[in-house]
Design a protein that fits this description.
alpha/beta; Rossmann fold; six-stranded mixed sheet; 19 helices; 14 strands; 15% strand; binds zinc ion
Length: 511
């Protein structure tokens, strides 16, 4: 009998944001009755690109689907099985039932493909997807096209399995796209390997879902050198397994530091990984002159992004996921181009944290009371738990275990961790940060590509500021554009003091 992973609450929460009229019981039933299959053609299985694509596909599928079958040459299949079991020890890896959805990497060895198939391939920086015929897999050691293809494929599988309950989506297009230049009309020109590149002193801030995928991609790149500073003060939590591609079940049990997890995956790379197990603001105190040559940002709030930009790195690269889209932004020049903070200027409409917590725990009219708990770091007490239980129509006993916890921790577990949904409460009333695994993974692959492109000298002044995608609706389609620099002089990049400090730090001309 197939079983759901023990971090399933979080998976259900993420899915509830994509699915209409989400119903937890039918979501579970659908998953348990939906074997999915991954087929790797023999030639693809012998190539680095095919192995990278298959590896990431398994890291994505095993986080949601309880039954995943793999067809590949024996040693590759055994390796992929091992990866799947490390994520979900109870996963079912053989099934007599025909798959509901099948991913085919490269050319399959048999013509007969049960279930709905999505064909993916790659060549260097390019990724290909088709619903009609097999795609080829290239001979390079470049993981970027392959990694993106795995994300497209996982999106297609999600669409197949949940076709009855997803909103109407446009049909998947057959296409090839370059991850180096998603705007390019000649993607084939990017069927090349990863350049040898010295990352010098590069930082990754935030080793959450996006940072995990950044590290995954960099770990597959040969020919990279330099120091990679890994900055994150948190440890792996069970709910992280839903979409952190590097994490295993054991990491949740051991509460592995996120920096240690990343360092472990980079051990065989040419990069010198330097873990900094602390939050960005603390870490900054240890940086001489706060000289930060290149910072890749995978943090999860606008406030944290603005804080990184305010520390004035020479170059900022950023990735995000949010309701409806994901993407990367490039900020090579604080003085003359849009900075990261330009993209996150408060628009006055974003609800405060206390409003958000009050609303999500079911007490929208008690924001002042909730703000009191947050501001004074007052632990959650029986009175509050009782009111929350009543508001959500669940037994008070269900919440007893949260008594004495800070309200932040309670909010994270009860709402963001999906507990409320499991005990029969409503789905989220507004967007909270719980993307599907393939959305975060694609954002991370894009961000890693930006790091390599920047370090490898593959970027120029006319590179667009932003590239975004809605990978669930239109897998493989990207939109890129150049944003205006901060409006109305409100941004820090229009502030004379910030500008002077940046110019002085990096010895650039202030115009
Ligand atoms: Zn700005």
């Amino acid at each position: 009998m197939p079983s759901l992973a023990r971090f399933f609450d979080k998976a259900a929460l993420a899915a509830s944001q994509a699915i209409r009229d989400f119903d937890r019981a039918s979501f579970e039933a659908t998953l348990l009755a939906s074997p999915v299959s991954l087929i790797i053609g023999d030639a693809a299985g012998r190539s680095r690109e095919g192995q990278a694509c298959a590896g990431l596909a398994v890291r994505l599928l095993a986080r949601l689907y309880p039954v995943v079958t793999v067809e590949a040459e024996d040693s590759l299949r055994d390796h992929l099985h091992q990866t799947a079991r490390s994520i979900h020890p109870g996963i079912t890896l053989d099934s007599a039932e025909p798959p509901v959805a099948t991913i085919v990497v490269g050319a399959p060895d048999s013509e007969a493909l049960p279930g709905e198939a999505v064909f993916v391939g790659s060549n260097g920086w390019t990724a290909s997807i088709s619903t009609t015929s097999p795609r080829s897999v290239g001979e390079t050691a470049n993981p970027f096209g392959a990694g993106a293809a795995a994300c497209f494929a996982a999106a297609a599988v999600f669409r197949s399995v949940f076709s009855d309950v997803l909103p109407d989506l446009p049909p998947i297009q057959d296409l090839t796209v370059s991850i180096l230049r998603p705007w390019a009309e000649d993607p084939e020109a990017d069927a090349t390997g990863v350049p040898d590149a010295d990352l010098e002193e590069t930082h990754i801030v935030g080793l959450g879902a996006i940072g995990n995928a950044v590290v995954w991609a960099l770990s597959w790149c040969d020919g990279l050198a330099g120091r990679l500073h890994l900055v994150d003060g948190e440890a792996v939590d069970l709910s992280n397994l839903q979409r952190y591609v590097l994490t295993s079940d054991a990491d949740a049990t051991d509460k592995t530091a996120k920096t240690a997890l990343a360092e472990r995956h980079l051990a065989d790379s040419g990069l010198d990984a330097v873990p900094h197990d602390q939050h960005w603001d603390r870490y900054l105190n240890d940086v001489p002159d706060r000289t930060l040559m290149r910072v890749a940002v995978g943090v999860d709030s606008p406030e944290a992004r603005v804080a990184v930009q305010a520390s004035l790195p020479r170059i900022v690269l950023n990735a995000w996921t949010q309701s409806g889209d994901l993407g990367v932004s490039r900020h090579p020049d604080f003085l003359d181009a849009p900075c990261l903070a330009c993209l996150y200027l408060p628009d006055g409409e974003r609800p405060s944290y206390s409003h958000r917590v009050a609303t999500e725990i079911g007490l929208p009219d008690q924001e002042p009371r909730i703000r009191g708990y947050i501001d004074r770091r007052k632990p959650v007490d029986p009175d509050l738990l009782s009111d929350i239980a009543t508001a959500n129509d669940i037994p008070t006993d269900e919440l007893a275990r949260y008594q004495g916890q800070p309200i932040d921790a309670f909010y994270a577990a009860f709402v963001c961790g999906g507990h409320r949904l499991r005990v029969g409460g409503a789905g989220p009333t507004r967007e909270i940060d719980a993307p599907l695994a393939f959305q975060s993974a694609l954002a991370g692959v894009l961000l890693a590509a930006e790091i390599v492109a920047d370090a490898g000298g593959l970027r120029s002044a006319d590179t667009p500021t932003l590239t975004r995608a809605d990978v669930l609706s239109t897998p493989g389609v990207f939109e890129s554009d150049t944003e205006p620099k901060g409006l109305q002089g409100r941004c820090i990049c229009r502030d004379d003091d910030f500008r002077a400090r940046y110019a002085e730090k990096y010895e650039v001309q202030l115009r």
